[in-house]
Known about the structure:
Order of helices and strands of chain A: EHHHEEHEE
Number of strands of chain A: 5
CATH architecture of chain A: 2-Layer Sandwich
CATH superfamily of chain A: Molybdopterin cofactor biosynthesis C (MoaC) domain
Number of domains of chain A: 1
Structural class of chain A: alpha+beta
Low-confidence stretches of chain A: none
Mean pLDDT of chain A: 91
CATH class of chain A: Alpha Beta
Distance between the termini of chain A: 26 Å
Helix content of chain A: 25-40%
Radius of gyration of chain A: 17 Å
Oligomer: homohexamer
CATH topology of chain A: Alpha-Beta Plaits
Strand order of the largest sheet of chain A: 2-3-1-4-5
Amino acid sequence: xxxxxxxxxxxxANMVDISEKCETSRTAVAFSRVKMNDSVWEAVRExxxxxxxxxxxAQVAGIMGGKKTSDIIPMCHPLxxxxxxxxxxxxxxxxxxxxxxxxxxxxTGVEMEALTAASxxxxxxxxxxxxxxxxxxxxxxxxxEKEGGKSGYFKx
Amino acid sequence: xxxxxxxxxxxxANMVDISEKCETSRTAVAFSRVKMNDSVWEAVRExxxxxxxxxxxAQVAGIMGGKKTSDIIPMCHPLxxxxxxxxxxxxxxxxxxxxxxxxxxxxTGVEMEALTAASxxxxxxxxxxxxxxxxxxxxxxxxxEKEGGKSGYFKx
Amino acid sequence: xxxxxxxxxxxxANMVDISEKCETSRTAVAFSRVKMNDSVWEAVRExxxxxxxxxxxAQVAGIMGGKKTSDIIPMCHPLxxxxxxxxxxxxxxxxxxxxxxxxxxxxTGVEMEALTAASxxxxxxxxxxxxxxxxxxxxxxxxxEKEGGKSGYFKx
Amino acid sequence: xxxxxxxxxxxxANMVDISEKCETSRTAVAFSRVKMNDSVWEAVRExxxxxxxxxxxAQVAGIMGGKKTSDIIPMCHPLxxxxxxxxxxxxxxxxxxxxxxxxxxxxTGVEMEALTAASxxxxxxxxxxxxxxxxxxxxxxxxxEKEGGKSGYFKx
Amino acid sequence: xxxxxxxxxxxxANMVDISEKCETSRTAVAFSRVKMNDSVWEAVRExxxxxxxxxxxAQVAGIMGGKKTSDIIPMCHPLxxxxxxxxxxxxxxxxxxxxxxxxxxxxTGVEMEALTAASxxxxxxxxxxxxxxxxxxxxxxxxxEKEGGKSGYFKx
Amino acid sequence: xxxxxxxxxxxxANMVDISEKCETSRTAVAFSRVKMNDSVWEAVRExxxxxxxxxxxAQVAGIMGGKKTSDIIPMCHPLxxxxxxxxxxxxxxxxxxxxxxxxxxxxTGVEMEALTAASxxxxxxxxxxxxxxxxxxxxxxxxxEKEGGKSGYFKx
Lengths: 156, 156, 156, 156, 156, 156
């Protein structure tokens, strides 16, 4: 099963040994798009001007979700995140784009933390809006960029 | 802020009152697609024939993630899930489709549990394969079907 | 050790048997006060007019904290909360008052859920403001009112 | 794969459907034995007469661990426990016996909750004593008795 | 919104970047007071002489709560605590004082860990005694002292 | 109470101060045995050849359980695990042996992480098989070996 790093000699999943890897600064940026109907989108956008809006709840959820990554993704190492920031863009009617930047100084990357935070942010937007639109679509969700570590720089 | 059910009189988010809602049987089916390059996809498919494969780890993660929904999504009510099942399809090269069925007997629906389980399943596939392909795409993720509760039947 | 309900025959703590108690509607209202210096208080109040303000983060934290009660307080039974709402008042300069209402339909009361949510809300306000004022004071925190269950109605 | 109830039609694990099962009263009693050298055992026993002793920490841990069962054991349904009690016996030098009784009113049994609480209790005894004796042995751990549900009464 | 460190450029909350901050030894001491009626206070004090007393349960809860801080407080960084100690004083009838000392070697302070542990300790005292006195008051809770980090020494 | 390291000056449990301890590489290996009747054992062994087998679910559970150790065992310090691997042996009919290896680079050992992972692995095997055999026995569970730290090398 060459290529996969998560399997041990018995062919079963394990948490790979990172004890010999260097502690370096690592950054990852993930992206996720949420698509909804126009009237919900308008309601979310107006909410942004008010207290307690959809996006601010989603963002708190995303940050807390990013911190739970190693509890949610079985083979993820626990990590001390040093930064987790979430920004939103609403580039056109019906679209909310989520950008998550995560930093750590450690022996393994933070791609999963960024992707998990982005997914939880999107799921929370769905939850806050589902009474108005059950057809909301989450994704695509992907890694935009990563820096640091042996595998080096990646940019989509 | 008509239409949103998650805000209180101060315009802030709250966990809506479901104490007057009926306990009925509720089902939700969520879907999520994972897109990867062909060689990783082949490796995952072969893994299916062996112990400890990618999909079986992803599936355990998805089930455990679905049970964590009310801990991850801020305004979700805690719920006693009575069933959570995940099935995979690989309809064409490069595509893994995730179907999650969740059931409960309770006062609120299980859409978020199904969507969260589907997302965590996809994230885990990404994690298991990211050493081979950092460009894997998660989504679209959406609700396929729901049944039970006042808002009734929904099918995409 | 009469009077305490949390100890077993060996004199050790246990989770008391509620299997014979009735499922009734139960409500609890908790209060917590946060005292800070005037300039921080002004900054928080202005934040209320903007997105991402201190109180909306604190409120999401309080709701999520309330749901974690049985995971935080050793002898608390897990409970299906049917409502959790948090409201703020700023009755005078330097004071933020937190009111938490929790409802359930179950065999035990929700006092601890309301008090835990109120405490987490206050702690989060501290965290968001501590760069400006390390002397912020949390409390008093107490039960304002409870309804339902054998011990009946309580009002402070 | 007849006999196993935790696998779906694809041969993968799932959380079995309990939505058609009756809500009945269910009880389970689990047992776990801890074996340690005589001097540690004496120290633990003396500790029982003082505040903050080993067994009282272990017992709080066991109760909290029992409540986490569905978060720890992948295919366990979340359950509202109505009682969780832990008792200790020290039948002879070097032996601490742990008895855990769990009750619920629900659609599935509480064997796993009792066994998990017993295991966490034992692990905590190990942790509290390991500076003095790294050779402590945990187990055997088994189900002593269960009552309620379709599979009926079991006694070892 | 000068003064607040928890907001990003969009005015939303984030987990601030500590990747450039030094790893130094950091200590924080928090205080919390619990006020109860005299008869409950006597019962708690007597319990101190016995196994399984209120304060020892509260203390285990406080330690475990302190470790959960970054899971409870949205913008808190995960931290490797190197010490967490809780002491009680009962300076006069009706009063229990809680002192929590937390240490770490890291890039950010442990004030929130100390305050969270103190609050959870108090909440657990409430829970253990509420059958006898629903009017128990928690607080004031505040930071007594902190050391280490750029903002330096603070003493109330 | 000489010999115990988990008690403070008031005789109560605390999380001992490790801030002066060195960061060294630490390894621990734990063992746990599961005993079941022959027909279940055969079913588990055959399952190994298929997707979704009992042992692969148990193994994912064990890895995730190991990461939760400081959340489950009250006085355990949070730790950044750098490796967690689980292997199975089936040395004779009716016996499944679990071997867990954990590594970290830190100020305290990983014995508890290895023992907790081994226990959760065994508990999950029980859960997956309990429909066929309620009499399955878990244990003995013990530390096989540890390396690193002031107390040095231990081998059973």
